[in-house]
Design a protein that fits this description.
With 398 residues, the chain is α/β, with parallel strands linked by helices. 47% of the residues lie in helices and 10% in strands. The strands form two sheets. It has an eight-stranded parallel beta sheet. Strands 1-2 form a two-stranded antiparallel ribbon. The chain binds flavin mononucleotide.
């Protein structure tokens, strides 16, 4: 067994381990962005540009990265975001991620297009869990998933409002990673060349569940082969804020919307009674012309005016990145690929290792900038104009 504490010293190490274990087509599917990958690169560049200036001679011998999010205490200022292919990179990868989150004392979000029954993930994963909800053109079918998540007892419902149009990813088409999967000599060889994944993940589904992974959380599609199911999964692009108001009446617990970038949308969300917004560009896999969430964050936080909890994601790979998000006003940071790479590399142990790495880096950076707790991580820690310049600093974009 690989000692992950030596093999994976940062998230990039886990990414490389995932690259070695997965077929190229699946690795590209989780790693790459859309179109020219401008948004994907820009997410990183925008975070890297920000500089944290520390204060010295503060006693930072006891550093505590705990926060309270939506009324509940948690040990780290992180959440695990929804990633559809979690069950493809590891057998029941959703449970692996949920358990890692529960152990770290943070919430986990289960994707609509996951492959393990939501009730099973809740029960076997434990901890605080949210259910991510896509609205398909078949509204009735979509609502059944939300009602099922309500019955199951998820703490939060996350309505994803970006990526309502299918994004363009040419390598998925070239790799045959489409729906239905296009088998070519190259991708068949690619799968055979990665026996740890082929036998350890796909082989286990075949042995334990007598078939390949299916969309088991979209009730009308349970039992439908993936290739056929995908034909029904056309996102609903007719949604308006009225839908959100109706959803608010229907969902009794925390309601979160994911994928806003404009401050005016934060105001609309607050007016609709939403509890939290996630400032996100879907990790650079939707609109390739989108700004980096971190650069619009200050304006969204200003517009939310404490009526909403504000979470940010897209491009966070280091503990220092997380502190930049918090310093610019986010209440917590959601991570997508960092823990997905961990799960792809080594299941629950790999996802746990990703969170350990981020935890250690958060504590280390807190020490370096003179902050013993998260309440001290404020705008004052950010070197002025090292983020995105005056427009987002002042909230002028509203
Ligand atoms: C492979 C992959 C699949 C994703 N699937 C979903 C999904 O099903 N629903 C959703 O709301 N977001 C999805 N996302 C977006 C993530 O929830 C999150 O916004 C994004 O990964 C954050 O960026 P990061 O990967 O740079 O941390 C996905 C992201 C990736 C990389």
């Amino acid at each position: 067994m690989t000692d992950l504490s030596l093999a994976a010293l940062d998230i990039e190490d886990l990414r490389q381990m995932a690259r070695r274990r997965l077929p190229k087509s699946l690795f590209d599917f989780i790693d790459r962005g859309s179109e020219d990958e401008v948004a994907l690169r820009h997410n990183r560049a925008a975070i890297e540009r920000i500089k944290l200036r520390g204060r010295v001679l503060n006693d930072v011998s006891r550093r505590d990265p705990a926060i309270t999010l939506l009324g509940a205490p948690q040990k780290l200022p992180l959440l695990i975001g929804p990633t559809g292919p979690a069950g493809y990179v590891w057998y029941r990868g959703e449970i692996a991620l949920a358990r890692a989150a529960a152990k770290a004392g943070i919430p986990f979000t289960l994707a609509s297009t996951s492959n393990t029954a939501m009730e099973t993930v809740l029960e076997e994963g434990g901890g605080r869990q949210w259910y991510q909800f896509y609205v398909w053109r078949d509204l009735e079918m979509s609502m059944k998933s939300a009602l099922r998540a309500r019955e199951a007892g998820f703490e939060g419902l996350v309505l994803t409002v970006d990526s309502i149009v299918n994004y363009s990813r040419k390598w998925d088409v070239r790799n045959g990673a489409t729906f239905p999967v296009r088998f070519t000599p190259r991708n068949v060889w690619d799968a055979l060349w990665h026996p740890r994944w082929l036998l350890g993940t796909m082989g286990r589904y075949v042995r334990a569940e007598r078939g390949l992974p299916r969309y088991v959380n979209i009730p009308a599609l349970d039992g439908v082969p993936l290739a056929d199911a995908r034909r029904h999964l056309i996102k609903n692009d007719t949604m308006t804020w009225d839908f959100l108001r109706r959803l608010r009446d229907l969902w009794p617990r925390k309601l979160i919307i994911k994928g806003i970038l404009h401050p005016a949308d934060a105001v609309m969300a607050a007016d609709c009674g939403v509890d939290a917004v996630i400032v996100s560009n879907h990790g650079g896999i939707a609109n390739d012309a989108a700004p980096a969430p971190i650069e619009v964050l200050p304006a969204v936080v200003a517009a939310a005016a404490k009526r909403l909890t504000v979470i940010v994601d897209s491009g966070f790979r280091r503990g220092g990145d997380v502190l930049k998000g918090l310093a610019l006003g986010a209440d917590a940071v959601m991570i997508g690929r960092a823990t997905l790479f961990g799960a792809a590399a080594a299941g629950e142990a790999g996802a746990t290792r990703a969170l350990e790495i981020l935890d250690a880096e958060i504590r280390r950076t807190m020490g370096a900038i003179g902050c013993a707790d998260i309440a001290s991580v404020t705008r004052d820690c950010v070197l002025p104009h090292s983020d995105t310049g005056p427009a987002s600093l002042s909230g002028d974009a509203i």
